[in-house]
Structure formats: structure tokens, C-alpha cells
Amino acid sequence: MLIALLIDDEADAREDLRVSLEPHLETVTIVGEAGKIDEAQQRLARDDYDLVFLDVQLRGGTGFELVPHVRPEARIVFVTAHDTYALRAFEVNAVDYLLKPISPARLAEALTRAVAADCIV
Predict the structure, then answer these.
(1) Confidence check: pLDDT of 120 > 70
(2) Greatest Cα pair distance in the chain
(3) Which of 23, 39, 55, 68 has the greatest number of CB atoms lying within 10 Å of its CB?
(4) 3-class secondary structure, 22
(5) Cα–Cα dist 61/29, whole Å
(6) How far is residue 19's CA from residue 101's CA, in Å, rounded to a whole number?
């Protein structure tokens, strides 16, 4: 079971992701959300998660600025409307990179990758 955080500055985007994850409740549980950089930093300081769904462009900064705050054991799936950051996402060891709107098949694939990555840690 993966324990996830949702970090996106758009409440509607977090809600869409939450709804998209509902069919996968046997694989993932959401334990928290953040919509601002400072909230995200505080939430990431806790140790009760192992997966972060992280938007690239956030008000006041970027998801890449948050990467150093993610616990080393956790996995990151970037979720964004911009395909231009994919290479950089994989350079910081993201497990996957999902484009909004997220297709159910791609979300399922990202979760499979996150589970596999969790098993090799």
C-alpha cells in the first residue's frame, strides 16, 4: 500500500486527482494535501508518506524546489499540464510524469511504477 501526498496549487486539480485515485484504493491512500509552497514544505517534513504527486508549476515556486524536502525513501510522480519539464523530472529521479488531464491508463501505469520502485528500495 502506497501512502500519498497531493501537492498542487489548484484545488480543482487536487480534487480531480483524488477522484482519479478512487479506483486504486487498494494500492494508494491519500494522507495529505498542500496547495502552497510553504504548506508543502511543512507537509513534506513529516514521515508518513512514501509517494508524492507533485505539480511542476506552483504559485510562488516550482515543484522542483520541493524535491529536496521529499524524504529520500519516497517516490515522486510529477503531475502537470506542461510536457517541457519531463526530462528534468527524471533527472531528479521521478518515478513518472503525468500530463493533465490524467488518463486512467497512465495513472494506473504510474502507480504500478511507484509500487515497483517501492519494492526495490
Answers:
(1) no
(2) 34
(3) 55
(4) helix
(5) 26
(6) 12
